[in-house]
Amino acid sequence: MELSYILNELGEDRELYFNAVAPPIMQTSNFACKTVAEMREMLKHEQDVYFYSRGNNPTVTMLEKKIAALEGAEHAIAFGSGIAAVSAAVLSQVKAGDHIVCIKKPYSWTNALMNKFLPRFGVEVTMVDGTDASNYKNAIKPNTMLLYLESPNSFTFELQDIEAIVAIAKAHNCTTIIDNSFATPLNQNPIAMGVDLVVHSCTKYIGGHSDVMGGVVCGKRETINKVFVQEYMTLGAVLDPHAAWLLVRGLRTLPVRMERIAATTRKVVDYLAQHPKVGEIRYPFLETDPQYKLAQKQLRHNTGQFTITLKTDDINKVDLFCDSLKHFLMAASWGGHESLIYPVAAAYDTGNYKSSLPFTMVRFYIGLEDADYLIKDLEQAFSKL
Ligand SMILES: *Cc1c(COP(=O)(O)O)cnc(C)c1O
Prior knowledge:
The chain is of the alpha/beta class. The chain is built from 14 helices and twelve strands.
């Protein structure tokens, strides 16, 4: 299916709504039946009909169809947040007594799910360094049901060799789930590499404007239908129709935003790479990166997130640099129009939350501003050190 068709036409029945170009928001909780016979049919096929919006809603369906097509998946199901999608996908694959092998340093709340939440229900998790696929293999036990990937992972952007890990999973009858938020469906399609379930935080690139939250799980129709009747309907972390509408709108411009972000990020990274006050840069699209070859194989284009370390051993200098930036907002998340920084230093000296990462590390996200505008801002902040 062509990208332009997916983004502009797929799932849109314009004749049903006065040929309006933009779809309506079906802001309704329920749908009425004309006869008992009709209601009887509805109840028999609740996953395939519009009956109650905790199940299906037409605006949400439109989004699900588009994202499933973008991922090359049979089906998709949308959630109220990315972590709801991650949790539902993971919970759908395990029961008490099972074991999961998970990438080390995943997204923070995925980490909490794996290490705090699941153990309460008798699910055991081993975290592994995913840069070597054999670490997954070595961690597999007789009760391992699931291999969980996030490639590239949060903050340090390390890659896992997806095909190698899928081969290990298949040999041991394990399911695979990958968090593909970093790459977007435009830059990496793990289902084509044999992954069973692909999850996204739509809050990031898909929404693209820092004004909406959402998540999605993509996979085989049968698997997604199981998630629907189990985790989706019982935990109820549904996506609101208005949020779905904003995400459909975000999708319209995803390709142009990603192209712009890729070009700007390249310029900013090149500037930082030659800067004497910058130590390491973690960006798998940089030729000097240890995983550059794998990035070239697995990912189509570069994206806007990277991490640098500042050459200093003084945390006050890190604070000074970050505080001096005027056009990078200091905030969580990424994927919107605005460039961001997230300093690891913020996690230091705050009681029980101490990061295992060095305090000199600053995560960057490059938005839609001009490269020169951002580089000038970096320059003036470096000049303060
Ligand atoms: C933000 C994020 C999530 C969680 O998404 P929310 O929409 O914030 O719930 C999951 N995975 C990754 C990689 C993320 O960056």
